[in-house]
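Dear support,

I submitted the protein below through the web form. The confirmation email said the job was done, but the results page showed an empty box. After a refresh the structure appeared. I'm attaching both so you can tell me whether what I see now is the final result or a partial one.
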Amino acid sequence: MVQTEVKKLGENEHEVEVKLPQSEYDRVYAEEKSKLAGQVKLPGFRPGKTPSHVIDKQFGPKIHEDTVSQLLQQHYVAAIEASGLTPALQPELSLPKVQPDDAFVFTLKVSSWPEVELTDLSKLKKVEETEVTVDDEDIQGVLERLYKSQVSYEIKDDRAAENGDQLHIDFEGFLGDEAFDGGKGEDVPLVLGEGRFIPGFEEQLVGKKAGDTCTVEVTFPEDYQAPNLAGQAARFETTVKSVGEAVKAKDDETLAKMLNFDDAKAMMEDIRQGLAKEAEQAGKSATRDSALDALVAAHPMTLPEGLIAEDMKATTARVIQNMKQQGMEATDEMLQDEAFKAEVRARSERGLKLSVLLQSVRKDFDISLTDEEIDAGVDEMVATYPENMRDDYAKYIRDNQEQMGALKDRILEQKCIDHVVSQAKTKKVKKTLAAWQKEQDKAIS
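What the results page shows now:
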């Protein structure tokens, strides 16, 4: 019943002319007319008894509009299937200004996914299979961070506060003689030198002792989050309740106790195990990126511009959301920056190309999931939860269609990537975890 003629407009761009027999239009028109005739009330006619020619005269344009809508709904999918195209975006629909006498015609402008013929995966170039190792430098780096972060504070009654000390303070803020909302705090912990308070506040507490009272005078920054305070001069009547001297671990045994380990040996073993897992994931990540880069490089393709633009919008939205979660704001200047837009476009193009290629890998090599692989994926997701909560969370995942769909997609994608790596001739590369991390930091900056 549906006849289609496909015209190529450009790379992955097509126009599909769809033709339905006039009898199909007449059938749907009669159905819409019959429905309307049973509903309308016209002067001089009983409901449902209005003559056909009167209905046509009064409501012909509306019936035609409803008929066209029904024809498009009923035959749109069949028209796409008959064209043999796989739309990457919602096709653009258009109708001729004048319909032919013997048919009903509409056209679809279709942006299709690129058709890709996979190359011999064993001929992929520059695929590096990376092994990331843990050495003394990595372990020492963790220890140094722990020594810096693990601090306790010993209260000293007669100690004059220094940078690095922790004070507990009471304060109340005033603009002139009026206290302002949100400017009062009791027993608030404050580590001098961390810069958590308004600029200039902490410096005026250096040298104070427990029991001291003082007036701290500051000016709120011009960009302060509360508009009524931004740029305003204020004073804080402040009482120092205690001064605690920072106490850091002087040796591994002390550090281990502060971290609730039995001894330094147990702490070091935990550090090694954590770094070993991190190194394993880093190696997989580096190998994955190398294989995917090689896969993209071996399969040049042109993507529909509309598809790239749509994905760029989604990518930009994710960047903005991530920045918000980190307490940062995406400015119009940043979003309009040409370098930023070029980076977003590059990400979108790479992601879309990989989507096409991995689908081809999955199809050509008949890659699918087993129940055991799905079960293992669920187990991995719940492993970070307390043991007594894992069964409930696993049930939640299995009962959630969206969660299970995302899980299966992720496992399938990894299987496809693993297959690419297994087929490619790889070059073995070994690097330390510290070296790998420096590469990641450089790439981000």
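Response: this is the final, complete result; the empty box was a page-load delay. The longest strand covers residues 233-248.
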